[in-house]
Amino acid sequence: MTLAVFFGCAFIAFGPSFALFVFTIAKDPLRVIILIAGAFFWLLSLLLSSLVWFIAIKASNSQDHSLQRGLLIFGVFFSVLLQEVFRFAYYRLLRKANEGLAAISDDDSSAISVRQMAYVAGLGFGIMSGAFSMINILSDSLGPGTVGIFGDSQYYFITAALMTLALTLLHTFWGVVFFEGCEKSRWWVIAAVVGLHLLVAGLSLLNPLYEGSLPPVYGIMLLMGVWAFFSSGGSLNSLNALCTRRKAEAESS
Amino acid sequence: MRKMEHLISINCVKLLIATLFYTCVLSSSVEQKIYVELNNTVPCVRLLNATHQIGCQSSISGDTGVLHVLETESDLDWILSSGPHPPYMVIMETAFFNRSVMMRMKNSPRVAGVAVIVSKTGLADHFSPHTTCPNQNTGLYSENNAPELANCNMTVWNPFGNGLSYEDFSFPVFALKDENQTQVIRKCYEDHNLRVNGSAPRYPLCAMQLFSHMHAVTDTVTCMRRTDLQNRFSINPEVLCDPLSDFNVWTSTRPLNSSAKGHVADESVVIAATRLDGRSFFWEQAPAAEGTVSGIVTLLATIQALYPVTREAPPPRNIFFTFFQGEAFDYIGSSKMVYDMEKNDFVIDLNNVHSMLEIGQIGLRRGQSLWMHSDPVSRRNTSVDTEVLNLMKNVNSAAAGLSVKLDQPSFSQPLPPSSFQRFLRAKQIPGLVLADHNTSFNNRYYESMYDDAENMNVTYPPNLSPDEQLVYETEEAKSLAEVATLVARSLYMQAGGENSRLSNITADPKIVAQLLYGFLVQKNNSWFRSLLPPEVTKKGDNSILSSGPPQFYIGLGPRIHGPVHSVTRFVQYILANLTGSVTNLTESQCQNPSEVNTENKDFFSYFWVSGPASVNGTEEPFCVQASVRLSKAVSPAFELLQYGSRDYSTWTESRWKSIRARIFLVASRELEMLTLGVGVAVLLLSLLVTYFISSKAELLFSSARETPTTTY
C-alpha cells in the first residue's frame, strides 16, 4: 500500500518499543545485553514450537482444511506455553547471573535489580515478538496493493500494527509480573500470566473478525499495565506524590 | 561478567542465524492475500529500426491503474475526462480496439495502460494494425526508381490498415486471450469498481499493474551503439536489443553443391518463392493464415506434386524452391539471399536465375480468378517483357483442365509487396507474383491476430477427433490443391519440361488438408510428430510441439530463444519428408554423414526422424536424405554494421527483464495518510510518555529495591 502505509504501520508497531529502548535501555550496556538475550530466548521458543508445528503439518494431510486449522490452533497454544517456559528459564538464568554480578561488583550489590531485569527481559520478548509479527507484513505493505481481493478486510495492515503494539507492551508487563510472581513464589500469578497469554493468542485467531479482537486485547493490556505498575513498586501514594510534586513545582514557579 | 559476555556473543550469532533461517523458510502468505498473478500474458513489445521506435513500454516498476472496462462511449469519457480516480487501466472490449480510440488513449495522461480483450464477439468487419502500404521504403519502387508507383500512389494494397503496429505507446498494452483470466478480472471489476446510480465507486478499488519495461530506446543506431559499448568495456555486458533473425529454407529439384559458392556454370534456375512469417500488434502472436499459411501450404503441395515427375524426367532447368523468413519486416530473408548472391556467397548467383514465380496471398480466392502480377518497370525492357509473356503463357496453358481462372491486372499496376521486388532491385529478372487479389488485398485482417483459420474459411464439422480433422479435406484444401497443381505444372513448363508429362503432375488434396490442419489448427498432430526428430516429439509441451496453431513471428533466432523457431523447423522437416529418400544409416552416422563414404554431405542434408507411431507405442526412427538446406536470414545491415541503413531492414527487438501482470485492491489516499498520521502520533506520544515516566522513575517506583541476595 505504498510508503505512507509502510511508515505509518512501522511507527505504530514499533514506536513505543523504540521510545522505551531509547530512553530506558540504550544508556546502560548491561540492560542492552539483557534485552538482546531476552529476545534470543523468545526466538528459541518460537523456533522449537514452529518445528513441532511444521512436523505436524508435514505429517498430516495437507488437503484437509479443518485439520490444518486445528493444527494451527494447537501450534499457537503450544507456542504460548513454550514461550512462558522460556520466560521461566530466562528468569532462572538471570537470577544466576545476578549473583555473579553481585560477586564481582565493588560494593557487593548487583548493578541491576531483579525488577529492572524483569522489565528489560519482558521488553526483549516483546520486541522480538513484534518484529516477527510485523516485518513480513511491513514488506508487503510497500507494494501498491492492499489486502482485500479475496474478501478480507482492507484495514489489515493497521490492525496488524495495532495488535503488534499491544503485544509488545503486553510482553513487557507480563515479564514484570511473572518475575515478581517467581520471586515471591506466588504460583497463581504465573498461572494468570499464562492464562492471559493464551487468551490473547486465542483472540488473535478470530478471523475474519480481526478488528474485533483489538478492543479486548487493549483492555487486557491496560489491566496488565496497572498490575505491572503495582507489582514493580508503584503505588497510589507515589502517583499522588508525583501529582503534588508537580503541583508544588508549578506553584513555586 | 566474562561468562555473561561469552554467552551474549554466542547468543547474537545464533540470533542472526535463526532469523535468517526463519525468513528464508517463510513464504509470504500475506502477498497471496493481496495479489492475483495473471499467468497468461501477451504483451506488446518495443521494436526499433534505423529511425524510430514502435511498440509499447511500461515504467521500470510497472504501471498501476484503477480498472475500468471500456464498453460504451460514456466509459471513454469517464476514462479520459470525468473519472475521479485516474490513472485508469483500461480493459478494452474488442470493438473499441481501433486507431481513433488508441490515439486518444495515447495522448491522455490519465491512462496507465490498456488490456485488450481478444475475442470474436464485437470484432469489426475489418482490422489490420499494419500500414496501408507494407514495406514501402525497402521495396522496388522509390523516389529514385519509378516514383509514380512508389508509396502506393497508384494502388493502396492494405486499405484497412490503421498503422497501430507502427505507433509508439508510452504505456503497456497487453492482450487478454484466456477467457478464464478475463473472467477473473471482470469479476474483480464488478465487485468493486462499478458505478452505483451514477456516483463514483468507493474505495477500495480493483486495480491492475502491468510490467513490460523495455531496455532499448530511440532507434537501432542508438541501441546497437550502446550494446557495442557494453560489450567492449563492461565485465558483464548487458545487451539492449537483438536483430530479428532466423533462417530461410530452400531446396531444389537437382541438388546443388552447398560448398561451392558463387556462379554455377551451365545452371539455369527457376525460382519459386513464398514467405514464411507474419506479425501482429502483440509479441509472438501471428496466426497469419491468409497472409502466410496459404502461400506455404501451396508451395509445399507444389513441391510434393513436382518431385515424382522431376525424378523420372528431369527438366533442363533446375527449379529452386525457397521460403523467405522475415518478409514482414522490410524483407529480411529475401534481401539477405540477394545480398549473398551478389557477394558470391550463395550456391547460385543472380546470373543463374532464369525467372521467378512467387506465391503471394492466395487463400481467399473463393472461386474467383487468380491474378498474375508483374512489374511494369522491368517490362519496359523488351527481352524481359518477352520472357514475362512467355511465363504467363505457360501458366495459362497449365490451367487447362483445372477449375482455376487466371487474370492479369492492368499493365501499369506495380507489384504487390513481395520478395520478388528485392530481386528486381538487384537485376531485372522476368517473373510473376500470383495472388487472389487485383488492386487491394482480399485479406481484411492482414497481419493481425484475427487472420486465423476462420478468416480462410477453414472449418471442420463438429464431433471429429483430432486425427479425423487432420485428414478431412475442406473446400479450401481442395481449392489450394488446384492452385498448387497449376503452379507445379507452370514451373515444369517454365523449366523446359515436356508437355506430355504435365498430366502426371497433381497435388494431393490430402497432403494439403494435413498441412492446413497442422499450420492453422494444431501443430501437435500425428503427422507432424512422425516427421520430426525423436528428441522433439519426446519433449512434448516444452518444445516446438506445444498445443495450438504455430505462430509465425520471426523472433530472434535460436541463439536467444529456446527451441529453434517452430515454423522453420516444420517446413524443413516436411520438405525432407516430401522430397527426401530413406537411407539405412544409424543415428550416429546420420548425425555425421561425412564419415560414411557413400553419402555426400555437400549435396544433401541428413535428418533423423521419428517415423509414424506404431500401435504399441514403439518408434522406429530412421535417417532421411534430402537436399533441403537452411540459409541465414539476418539483415545485411547488421553484417555491414550499417545500423542506419536505408536500403536494408534494420529491425531489432528490445530486451526486457520481466513481463507480468497482476490485479489487486488499492486503498484511498486518505486512508494511507491517516495511517501515517496515526503512526507519527503514536511515535511522538510514546516518546513523550516514556521520557516523562523515565525521568520520574525514582519517584514512581519508590518501594525499596530488592537486595540482590534474596534467595529463591
What this model shows, in words?
The complex is a heterodimer of chains A (253) and B (712). By secondary structure, chain A is mainly alpha-helical. Helices cover 81% and strands 0% of the residues of chain A. Chain A starts with a helix and ends with a helix. Helices cover 34% and strands 18% of the residues of chain B. The radius of gyration of chain B is 32 Å and the shape is elongated. Chains A and B meet through helix 1, helix 2, helix 3, helix 4 and helix 5 of A and helix 1, helix 2, strand 10, strand 24 and helix 19 of B.
Topology:
The complex is a heterodimer of chains A (253) and B (712).
Chain A: H1 2-25, H2 29-59, H3 65-104, H4 114-141, H5 156-183, H6 187-204, H7 214-231, H8 236-252
Chain B: H1 2-25, H2 29-34, E1 36-38, E2 42-43, E3 47-48, E4 53-56, E5 63-70, H3 73-82, E6 88-92, H4 99-106, E7 111-117, E8 168-169, E9 173-176, H5 179-192, E10 205-214, H6 220-233, E11 241-243, E12 245-252, E13 269-275, H7 289-312, E14 318-324, H8 332-342, E15 353-359, E16 369-373, H9 382-398, E17 405-407, H10 420-426, E18 431-435, H11 466-471, H12 475-494, H13 509-520, H14 526-531, H15 534-539, H16 566-579, E19 581-583, H17 587-591, E20 605-609, E21 622-626, E22 628-634, H18 636-639, E23 652-654, E24 656-666, H19 669-695, H20 697-700
Parallel strand pairs in B: 4-8, 5-6, 6-7, 7-9, 13-14, 13-15, 15-18, 16-17
Antiparallel strand pairs in B: 1-24, 2-9, 3-4, 3-23, 5-10, 10-24, 11-23, 12-14, 12-22, 16-18, 19-21, 20-21
